[in-house]
Design brief:
Elements (H helix, E strand, L loop, with lengths): L1 E2 L3 H9 L19 H4 L6 H14 L7 H16 L3 E10 L5 E11 L6 E7 L22 H20 L6 E7 L15 H8 L12 E5 L8 E3 L1 H20 L6 E5 L3 E2 L1 H7 L4 E5 L25 H16 L4
């Protein structure tokens, strides 16, 4: 994904919004239980980290590689083990570089017969080039993608394990693992999120069971990561941002889910929004060091050594609490 606004431009955009829009700092909060009573299912950060490491151990998950094939199989096997109804979209697409690549979008459904549904998603491919390395000689090397790809997938798979133990009541939850997100060119916004662009053209829904909204998890394992309210999420699905950030506060993770405006990101949630499903992005977008993404973004330092289990725990527990406390 690419950063679409500088912080200065973002502030100008926010101040020029319609008078009917409320700033993120004064976002409405829904009533939620206190920290002690909110946790229904405990999110296991160690189990989540093991799922993350299993992906990285395959190697960079560049579309068309052996690691890519092995990871697709791993995700499907995990979903099958955890009792999901699996739908696979197997196709091809052409990158901005003119290369034809395979695309495997994998959907795992819980309570598949429920008409009331939500969609959680993450991309599972990795950047083919370490183009943010300071040494240009390293730009052609693929990255491990421990944070950028594997972290979101690992959180979703751990949620799958929990939902196999206890299914959410009266609600269907879809876990979507999208491919071919990270092969884009910085000058071409449409060259990103290719897997999601293909998925929305063939969504397995009718008008009756289409998800009410979607939540994207991207780069949710960085050291000491904090998650500000992403600009487009607030613009298109502010009420969902309010719910998630409110649950985070009630869960004791208000310092991680900062209730302030962050940057605007070109990411899979924009494609989902365009398809008529309001979608938000939980992503580190206002890092204290960089002003945007985690410092390891699109570098060879995006490896398991720079993953923070406490970050995985914060995001995973917030999402578990969100699912099981009927804030859907």
């Amino acid at each position: 994904m690419i950063k679409t606004f500088s912080k200065i431009l973002l502030l100008l955009l926010l101040t020029s919004c319609s008078a009917n829009s409320k700033p993120a700092e004064s976002a409405e909060r829904s009533e939620t239980p206190d920290t002690e009573s909110i946790e229904v299912m405990t999110f296991d950060a160690d189990s989540c980290f093991a799922k993350l490491k299993a992906q990285v151990d395959f190697g960079p998950r560049v579309p068309g590689s052996e690691a890519h094939k092995n990871t697709a199989r791993f995700i499907q096997d995990e979903l099958a083990k955890y009792g999901a109804n699996i739908i696979l979209q197997n196709t091809t697409t052409v990158t901005a570089q003119g290369k034809t690549i395979p695309v495997y979008n994998i959907l795992g459904q819980y309570n598949p017969d429920c008409k009331k549904r939500i969609l959680l998603l993450a991309h599972w491919d990795t950047r083919p080039w370490a183009d943010e390395e300071s040494n240009e000689e390293l730009h052609s090397k693929p990255i491990d993608g421990a944070n950028d790809g594997a972290s979101g997938v690992a959180v979703l798979l751990e949620l799958a394990r929990l939902m196999n133990v206890k299914a959410p009541e009266n609600t269907g939850v879809d876990l979507l693992f999208v491919d071919a997100e990270d092969s884009g060119d910085s000058g071409d916004e449409k060259s990103w999120c290719l897997g999601t662009q293909l998925w929305v053209k063939n969504m397995p829904y009718t008008s009756e069971n289409k998800p009410q909204y979607a939540i994207l998890l991207d780069m949710v394992g960085g050291r000491n990561a904090k998650f500000h309210r992403e600009y487009f999420s607030d613009k298109y699905a502010r009420s969902i941002v309010n719910k998630v950030w409110s649950i985070a506060s009630a869960s004791g993770y208000g310092s991680r889910f900062v209730n302030e405006a962050g940057g605007g990101i070109t990411d899979d949630h924009l494609v989902i929004n365009e398809a008529g499903i309001p979608a938000i992005d939980i992503i580190e977008n206002n890092n204290a060091q960089t002003g945007s993404f985690n410092p390891t973004w699109h570098t060879l330092e995006d490896n398991v050594k720079n993953i923070d289990k406490s970050t995985l725990k914060a995001v995973g527990q917030v999402m578990s609490n969100f699912i099981y406390n009927k804030n859907i």
